[in-house]
Amino acid sequence: MTQSPYVLVLFYSRHGSVAEMAKHIARGINKVGDIEAKVRQVPEVSDTTKIASPALPDAGAPYCTLEELADCAGLAIGSPSYFGSMAAPLKHFIDQTSTLWLTGRLIDKPACGFTSASTMHGGQEQCIHSMMTPLLHHGMVWLGLPYKNKELINTTAGGTPYGASHLANSTNETALTDDEKALCEAQGKRIAEMAIKLQK
Fold first, then answer.
1. Looking at the predicted structure, is the pLDDT value of residue 51 above 70?
2. Distance of alpha carbon 71 from alpha carbon 93, whole angstroms
3. Which residues belong to any copy of the Flavodoxin-like domain (predicted)?
């Protein structure tokens, strides 16, 4: 049986904001016909040799496999901004993709990024850049958010032309503003449409 094309929504979320963004990006993807969203997360990593996470997550999306990444038609990747960079668990997952790089499995597939930070200038755009860099090495086609999305102009919270973002004023603030939700859905819709175009 042939698998339906999908956009992989891959993320790490420590306090829930990025997981919430992933849901809205998936909604945007699922508004496009002939493609679907596959939502996956990455496990925690440890600074010791102990096992940091169970084989299956206690809650939320399943953990991603390299095969799911290899077989995707497009990739939306998300992380909280940690000092202007992606979180270690996501970087650890990407660092395991050398076999996909050697075989060119991700070449010419579209990718985009999304992030959350607790301050207005907490490195959202730089975090998206940190996720973009290894994907460019994989030969992926990076998509930002064009200003035809008026929420980019109107937002007083998250939102960048580099990719969707969320301003979480406190650690446990996972609720997105209406503008942030709209930008996440617009980003999901855009990557789904591009994935279909690039498959033809």
1. no
2. 16
3. 7-192
